[in-house]
Amino acid sequence: MAGNSGNATDYIIHHLTPLTTDRLLHQTEDGGFWTFHLDTLFFSLVLGLIFIGIFRFAAKRSTAGVPTGIQNFCEILVEFVDQQVKDSFHGRSQLIAPLALTIFVWVFLWNFMDLIPVDLLPWAATFIGIDYLKVVPSTDLNATFALSISVLFLIIFYSIKVKGLAGFGKEVFTKPFGKWLFPANVLLRIVEDLAKPISLALRLFGNLYVGELIFILIALFSLNATADGWGLGDTALFITQLLLGIGWAIFHILIITLQAFIFMVLTIIYLSMAHEDH
């Protein structure tokens, strides 16, 4: 087990604790709010580079004939996302489709890390002196909020770009109750705009955090299996753990795909609303 064994509570807490700059330097005190979660940043960057590398590789080797292999896979993804944009987005923008594709694939890769055995990468990290490691970026609320806040900035940007600064201000102060109730209009707009990134971030985080926790709980079946020697009961627990892990992983494939799809579709819908000038 990765750095912790014996106590189930310590084992769970250990797996849910991110690698911060303080923990990397083996400091006892946590830096608090402004501490970087290095594991989230690292895996997000690596997965982003993998996404770019795969699609760049497919683009460079694309042919005009019948696509095969990785080109076919990438074209299916592009056509799927493009269809979602055509169905949900009612404005005109060359950014929306690439943005939707990036969000869908990147969030899916974040979530896919949840299918890697929970002890594998943390155990490997101990060989280079890293005691804490969270490998699923979407189980870090900082990552999901960062992505959803980026979407909020785009919503505000396109609202101003399409309607103009005066039109955007008029919409904020006069809709839906008229100009004489502008305090209520502004308050309602603030709540509406804040609800979008909060719902995006918490939905993704909540589903993946629970999924990761279930994998950790399944791993507890054989936490102390070798403490007093391997016995028949330990074998039964290991088989149970293996079957539960495989079953949950198969079901979890649907969850990680669905969450990436929902994040993408809601982003498209929110940006479509921002482009509406009526």
Can you describe what's shown?
This protein is mainly α. The protein has one domain. Helices cover 70% and strands 0% of the residues. The chain contains nine helices and no strands. The relative contact order is 0.14.
Give, in order, the helices and strands: HHHHHHHHH
Query: Could you give a short account of the major beta sheet?
Result: none
- Low-confidence segments, given as residue ranges, are 1-5
Q: Hey, roughly how much beta strand do the residues contain?
A: under 5%
**Count of DSSP H/I helices:** 9
Short description:
This protein starts with 7 loop residues before the first helix and ends with a helix. The chain has one domain.
Keyword list:
globular, 278 residues, disordered N terminus, mainly alpha
What order do the helices and strands come in, and which of them pair?
Blueprint: H1 8-15, H2 21-24, H3 38-60, H4 69-88, H5 96-112, H6 120-125, H7 141-174, H8 182-219, H9 232-275
